[in-house]
Specification:
Blueprint lengths: L2 E6 L4 E6 L5 H13 L6 E5 L9 H15 L7 E4 L4 H13 L6 E4 L2 H11 L6
Parallel strand pairs: 2-3, 3-4, 4-5
Antiparallel strand pairs: 1-2
Helix pairs in contact: 1-2, 2-3
Length: 128
C-alpha cells in the first residue's frame, strides 16, 4: 500500500505515511476516507519522506481541485507535509502550496524539529 493511515481522535490528527509508487488515485482514496469518516476538520500530517521523488505537479494540481470539490466550502483542518529536503521536493512543495489556495493552512516540514513544532500547534491531546 502506498499510503498507510492512522487516526488519533483524541488529538484530532490523521497521519498518512506515503511510500512508492504514489498516484493521484492513492491520495484521492485517503481524502475520500477523511470525508467519509467525518474528520475533515482534523489536522492532517502527510509524511512523504520515503518517496523517491516528488509526486508529479499535475497529480498534485488534480488533488487540489478534487479536495476543493469534496470539501464544498467546509473548513478543513491544517495540513503539514513532511518531505525530504531535496531541491526537487521543496520546489514542488512550494509550488503546490502556493497553487492550492491554502498556503496559510498548509505547511511544508523539512526536518524533525519542524514536524514536532507543527504537531505541538495542531495536534493537541484533548480530554473529550
Amino acid at each position: 500500500m502506498p499510503i498507510s493511515s492512522a487516526v488519533d481522535h483524541q488529538r484530532r490528527l490523521i497521519t498518512h505515511t506515503q511510500t512508492d509508487p504514489m498516484t493521484f488515485e492513492d491520495m484521492r482514496a485517503a481524502i475520500d476516507r477523511q470525508w467519509a469518516d467525518q474528520t475533515w476538520a482534523y489536522a492532517v500530517l502527510w509524511d512523504a519522506r520515503a518517496l523517491a521523488a516528488a509526486v508529479p505537479m499535475g497529480e498534485l494540481r488534480r488533488l487540489s481541485v478534487y479536495i476543493e470539490g469534496v470539501g464544498a466550502g467546509h473548513t478543513r483542518g491544517p495540513v503539514g507535509i513532511f518531505i525530504a529536503a531535496t531541491a526537487d521536493t521543496v520546489r514542488t512543495g512550494i509550488e503546490y502550496a502556493s497553487g492550492s489556495g491554502r498556503s496559510r493552512e498548509l505547511e511544508l516540514l523539512l526536518n524533525q524539529g519542524q514536524m514536532d513544532a507543527w504537531l505541538a500547534r495542531h495536534a493537541i491531546r484533548r480530554s473529550d
